[in-house]
Amino acid sequence: MSDRPADPSSDPSSVDPADYPRKVLFVAGAGRSGTSTMAGLMQIMGLHVPQPEVVADETNPKGFGEPAWVVENHDRLLKEAGVQVSDSRPDAWFETGRVSTREQERIRAAEWLESHFGEAPGNTELVVKDPRLSWFLSLWRVAAVRTGATPVFATMLRPPAEVVGSKQTYYKNRLGSAHLAASWLNMLLHTERATRESVADGGRVFVRYADLLDDWTRVVMQLGERLDLQHVMHARSEAIRNGHRFVDPSLRRMTLSLDDLGLPPRLHELTGETWEELNRLAEPEGDTPAAHQALDQLREAYVELYEEAEAISRSSVVAAEQRTRKQLRGGPPAPAAPSRVDKVPHRLRAAIPAPMRRGLRKMLGRRR
Length: 368
Description:
This protein is α/β, with parallel strands linked by helices. The protein is built from 16 helices and four strands. It has a four-stranded parallel sheet, with helices on both faces. Helix 6 packs across helix 7 (177-195). The radius of gyration is 23 Å and the shape is globular. It starts with 22 loop residues before the first strand and ends with a helix.
């Protein structure tokens, strides 16, 4: 029998969770991309989801893994910034960035984190998840550091057509496929850029939702090692059994492809290329400068596409604003001027995001 002492890491009972270094895992990604499944598994492994949580409902019967305070705080901040949860405007990042730099907001977030680290001796690793989270990643990074914790990031990846289909099914979204695809592009491209600071110290991972459903133990254990999450690396057998009961492979109910969405050609192309490049980040050793450069180019291309769409529709926006001002002054609605919209080539009209087209039609009093 060997005289060498046993490796403490091989025996979970020999490790006191109170001795783990402080860490906050931020689970990011578009809504309906598997963020709830990831947060739920992290909670089962032993990471602490600050309470109270958002209550499960029919759209997510196994729970969201979302701290209610975070959701309410993000809703407040988005309202102040004038940004939607699924906003497709590149400029929306500038607006939420301004809010994120406010010192009072950083203090508020840091105090909230600190209060949950102190709830119990074992609460040394927290998991924070919310579909709105990506808008305020810089705020949370600063808040975590101020509590003496290391911020780490897990971004969930799910095919954009499946995300769009799931949102339309479960959220009764009426904004249309083009808007939802554009908001997915906007969210993922900027989330990748916002977490790139953590590449050097191994503080971010990208996880395919399909991989998580196929073999969650392998994916979660690799994530735990990459991000140095002690609760995951020292998970007990009971937690593993609970994880098997929690993960339902049938959760991937959407099988749509981009071709099913009927997107404008350039938006279709950018969405497909972005999905391909993001998948590279989920591969071992795939988080490389070459991948970052490709994603930077795609982000610039999306900004250009959006600016073109805005420029094309500027006259309609001005006309709609004039009609709205007249109505607000109490006068009778101005008669709609004869429109030449139908004479614009379809390919140009299709380049304008669907929600903008519908909003303009509504404000102009046109059915089509």
